[in-house]
Amino acid sequence: MIVSVLGLGYIGLPTAVMFASHGIQVYGMEPKEEICNKLNLGEATFEEGALAGLLKQAVNKGMLRCDTVLKPADVYIIAVPTPIYENKRADVSYVEQATKNVASLLKKGHLVIIESTISPRLTETMVKPLLEMSGLKAGEDFFLAYCPERVMMGSIIYELENNARIIGGYNEASAQKAQALYKIFVKGEIYLTDLLTAEICKLTENIYRDVNIALANDLAMICEELGCNVWKVVEFANKHPRVHMHLPGPGVGGHCLAVDPWYLIEHVDGNAKLIRNAREINDQMPQFVADKVRKILPEGGKVVILGVAFKADVDDLRESPILHLIENLKQDFEVRVVDPHIEAYNLDIYDTVKDTNLLLLGVNHSIFNTYDMENICARMKQKNILDTRNFYDSKKLEALGFKVCKLGVK
Length: 410
Hints:
It is built from 16 helices and 13 strands. By secondary structure, it is of the alpha/beta class. The chain has an 8-stranded mixed beta sheet, sandwiched between helices. The chain has a 5-stranded parallel beta sheet with strand order 10-9-11-12-13, covered by helices on one side. α5 links the parallel β5 and β6. α8 packs across α11. The longest helix is centred in the middle third of the chain and has 32 residues. The termini are far apart.
């Protein structure tokens, strides 16, 4: 069996590596030649735990090869990006083009799988008709399934192997064909359903978390207004056996949580009110944090931000709320950013904080806990620190001379 994976990004590459590591010949299609060249040398294009080692082994054994054009295969997995436009509508052009590429090589008995996050019914209304332009019929001549990824950055390899998997088939035969494929490396349970249920299930998983975070962020703003500590409120509320609140922060980023709700919102008429409100609350958090900075430094000054990735301990900038925060603060402040996970921001923290008026913790990277905070404090012009993640021990920082402010605390 030969598997072709279209799109070797954050999902496509780990998926390709997993199949290759289990003895399947894999060809990857990636339109950017410089990325293909790097992958063909066995070099990962992003940080992701065990990925680098597995990729190197697969390439050295000849089980994984990248090319800028699609290679014939028995199975085609489409894992291309699905961003959103400025008007929050889904851009499915990459899925459309990838599907057309597959249609040009499609033969009887082939299996086509969509892994990209997509809008409800897109597999049946766009993907299926494009594939059937080959003259073959879905469910009769070829198999078609939607198999969304359900992984977290930083743990992708482990979760690809161990998480439960949802497979939506165009028909029962398609679902079973896809199930047999994923059983090659998936140890978790595999559940079969129809296309639409699988599509909405994928969106729902991320919407659940987005709404929960929005509740925490809304509560953080309320606690600031009322003079309470949101971190204590969440801690004690979670002592209840049926309460599991998420944590507030400077916004929600990543390609999933910050994007997936819009795929559903655009396809319902007048509904999804809670989902839309949650998105709006989370999107306004960079502005809320920026306004808090202006209260701390009413006369302006220099702000150093720790962390710009969309979450802790990854090198992924997609939809990062800190990028919006930076642009907002630049209107009134000199802004510098330190993030060892991002090459462009891998600056020396001790040089960067010289004459700083405020240190802002935006992302709770583990490495930030190794910094010499006494040294940092001594180099700052004003000793203000704004912790948006409840990352630092306030009493320890205050003992060093910092004036500590926290998101969700007046």
